[in-house]
Structures are given as C-alpha cells and as structure tokens.
Amino acid sequence: MTGLGLTDIDTLCLSVRDRESRRLIMEAITAYRGGALRSAIMSTWIAVAYDIIAKARELASQGEPAPKKFVEELDAAINQGNGEIRKLQKIESNLLKTANADLQLLAPHEYEALDRLQKDRNLCAHPAFVVEDELFQPSMELVRAHIVHVLQYLLIHAPLQGKSAIARFDTDIVSPSFPTTSEAIGIYIRSKYLDRAKDVLVTNLIKALLSGLFSEDHVKYVGKERLFGMAIREIAKAKTAIYERIVPAYVANKFDAVADDVLLNICTFLENDPRIWDWLSEPTKLRITKLLEISDVEILKAHAAFDAFAVPELAEVLLARFDSFDEKTRVSIISEHPRQEFIGRAIDIYKGAGGWRYAEMLGKAIIIPLAPLFTADDIRKVLEAIVSNSQIGWASDTPDILSAVFDSTLPILDGARPHWLKFVDDMTEQAQGDRTAHYAYPEIRMKLDSP
Predict the structure, then answer these.
(1) Chain centroid to CA 224: how far?
(2) 104 and 135 both lie in a single domain
(3) Is the pTM of this model over 0.70?
(4) What digits encode the pLDDT tens for the residues 332-344?
(5) What percent of the chain has pLDDT over 70?
(6) Do residues 403 and 303 both lie within one domain?
(7) Does residue 24 sit in the same domain as residue 116?
(8) Which of 40, 63, 228, 323 is spaced 20 to 30 Å from 273 by Cα?
(9) Residue 410 sits in which domain range?
(10) Does residue 334 lie in a domain region?
C-alpha cells in the first residue's frame, strides 16, 4: 500500500475529539482489518452520522441558529418515537447535505468524499436493491480511503461556524500563544480556520479583523495591533477572491464612522495592504492625514502610525513629523518602529554620537534594530561613521554591537565584505597594527575569515 498506512490511521484516531466518535470509528477499523469490508463501511457511516449530530449539538449550545433549529427538529422526532420513524429516516438521509449546507462543517472536496461514502454505505445496507451479479464488493483500498477521509475531514476537527468561529479566533489572537510572524500566522489561520471554511465564515472573519481595533472593546487588543494587520494579509493571500470582493466596499463605508481616538489603528492595515488607502473615502483619508500631522508622538507610536509609510501619500507627512521631533524622541521612534525609511537618519544620528556611553546606547537602540533592513551601502556608511568618530569606534561595547550587526546582515555579506575588510584594516591601523587589540575588532576579522 501507498499513502497513509494503518499506523497513520491509528494516529489519526488518537486525535478524534469526541470519545464516542472515536469508539465508533475504531469499530470500523476493526472490521476493516478483519476483512469485513461491508461492515467496515457501515460502521464508518455510523461514525459520520453520530459525529455530525454531536457537532450540531455543540454548535447549538453556542447559540448558532441553524444548528439549533436542526437539533430541535431532531429531538422532536426522537421524542415522538415510532410515530416519527419516517422523519428520522429523512433526517438521516439528508444528514450529509445538512452538515454541508446548514451546519457548514465541510469544504466542497470534503463533502464530495463523504457523499461517496454515503452512496457506498447504501449499497452495503440494501443488497436486495441490486441483482446478484452486481452485488457490491468494496475493495480494501476503497474502505481504507473512506476511513481516512472521515478521520481527516470530520472526526478530528472542531466544528467551525459563524459566531462561534469568530469568538474562537478573537480568543486566539489575544492569547500569549498566538504566532507573531507572518509565516507562522499564515500557517495557523489556514490550518485552523481557512482550509475548511465556507465563504461566509471567511467573509465574517475578514470583517471581524477589520472591525476589531475600532470596536468598543478595542482596549483588549492594545499591543496586538500588528497581529491584526498580518492576519489580514495572510487571509488575503489564502482567500484572494473573497478578500478582494469584500474589502473594498466594506472599508469604503466602515471607517467614515470611526472615532478619531482609534482611527489611526488603520495604519497597521495600510502596512500590510496599501490598497486599503485607495478604498477609503476621501473624507476618511483627510481625517487620517490630519491626525498624522497633529497627534503627539506617544499617540503615533501607540497606534503604529509609522506603518503608514507604505502609502506614498503619507510618507512625506510622516517624515516631516519625524524630523520635527528632538533627537531623543527620534531615537525612541526608530527603536520601537525600525523601518527602512529611517536608516539614513539613524546613521546620521549615530555618526554624531558625542560620548562612548551615548554611542553604545545608539548602537543598541537604533543600529541593531535596523540592521536586518540594511543594504551593503548602509553597512558601508555605518562602518565609515565608526572609523571617523572615536567616541563610537573606541566605545567598549561597539565590538559586540557590530558583531550583532554582522550576524543580522549575513544574507548580504557578499556585497558588504569589502566594506567590512576595509573597516577592520582601518581600525587595526588605529590600534597601531595590533590585530588582537579589542578595538581592532578581531571578532569581526575572525567572522570574515570563517568559511
């Protein structure tokens, strides 16, 4: 056999959420291993039917209207006993369609796979409906595929629908364990929400993310603003058609009513999708621009306003505000919001350091945070600043600072190597030719000599 083997089926079984669903699918696996293939298909369908109903009850308990209506109809038929046998049969016959259309438990390809199982189950359950020569004979491979699909597509997953899914995501994004990088956020959102989501859930999730930072309880998201922007970007990549159909019209109306005290939170979205700026109404654009011009630095930093550099129309406004602040404030902005736009200004500040301790502070506060954004020419300018200013070059922590910069810029070492070599030669000359001297930067030379 190829693909998932028996041990993989056992592993999947361990991930089944519901204990009774796990017991039922284990019965199917036991029948499969014993060669009772029709019985295995029947038992697999029983596990599906039970799990769909269990998930419907779980969603109903969370207040979801469609599952609640289904459970009420099911319980009413059960309570009627024999008088509602036909209705119960109809409910079971339509169970997969209900799970797909009303409960929204399945993606299209998952529904198709389980629909094939239901059809094969009917062939096994009603052999009198076919002539003897055509009696259904399922193969081992077919039965195994059904079991794996049921495990992968239904039994191991939590039900996701409407309000419950949005509430769960809201809890996730404020939790300490939520990923903090775009790549990890993308994997997390796709595997937990998007891969199995109906279009309506994706739409609601997009709207919830775009609204959260501007809602009445926005305070609980303080410090998490950038996660919203990264999450939106990953959804846009994974569900592009839905995103581009929903977002332009939504943001065109949404932000007209947003209060000034939270409007700048939109900047994190502009960083991750600058097109949002074009989709905003003109009055909203004017309000955002004005707020960037007049807000004090703490408000700008709190709302990650410097992320709006991604919008060319706002970059000039932001640079003007940045240049209007004193050096201490500019250093704090760069330290908290390192951006490529600040590199030239940061090097100028560093170059003018007026004391050893101040040079060390600047190196740690602005040079190290910006280093991953450096080009080879930026490295040249930083190294020339150090050579030309003994307050930097002879500060005791500068070798460690430069070592951190070197490590952060390894991807561009080929282009920067000549600048590093010239730097260590110049500093060695200042150290009177002693290559081992602390201020001759022997660690950098050793890094350059490493293969």
Answers:
(1) 13
(2) yes
(3) no
(4) 999 999 999 999 9
(5) 95
(6) no
(7) yes
(8) 323
(9) 341-449
(10) no
